[in-house]
Design goal:
The chain is mainly alpha-helical. The protein has seven helices and three strands. A three-stranded antiparallel beta sheet has the order 1-3-2. The termini are far apart.
Length: 136
């Protein structure tokens, strides 16, 4: 195998691995679900829905099923209440914390580069545009 073929093979392997990681985090709500479970450790469906503002029950349900199939979360019946289902991250799911932190850092740096403001400054400006001042 020539050097060019070896480089092509390495690029292809890297590309496949990156696509797998992006597929894992695909969807608007997936990172938010994972972050909620990283912070809160164990949540039932209703608590997750409350924690993630704007997500519908249907989308949350399908997202949880997908994450369970991908071995990111586990679904367990609560020992305290009959019929109550709780969700928590698996070890594999908890391993995503560093990646999500790095993606957040990249997103913040990118937003600052494009707008000159970070997320908190942008949120304050949006509140001020509505005539209400809030400190976040």
């Amino acid at each position: 195998m020539g050097n060019k073929d070896q480089i092509h093979s390495q690029c292809r392997q890297t590309s496949i691995a990156i696509n797998d990681a992006l597929d894992l985090l695909a969807g608007k709500w997936t990172p938010l679900i994972i972050m909620a479970l990283l912070v809160r450790k164990v949540l039932c469906f209703t608590a997750l829905k409350t924690e993630i503002e704007g997500i519908s029950s249907k989308v949350l349900s399908s997202s949880l099923k997908r994450l369970e199939q991908q071995l990111i979360i586990e679904r367990n019946a609560s020992s305290g209440q009959l019929g109550k289902i709780e969700y928590k991250l698996t070890d594999h799911g908890r391993n995503l914390e560093k990646l999500l932190e790095q993606l957040s850092d990249v997103g913040i740096a990118h937003r600052i580069m494009l707008t000159g403001r970070n997320v908190q400054e942008r949120a304050i400006a949006e509140f001020e545009n509505f005539g209400t001042k809030h400190i976040l």
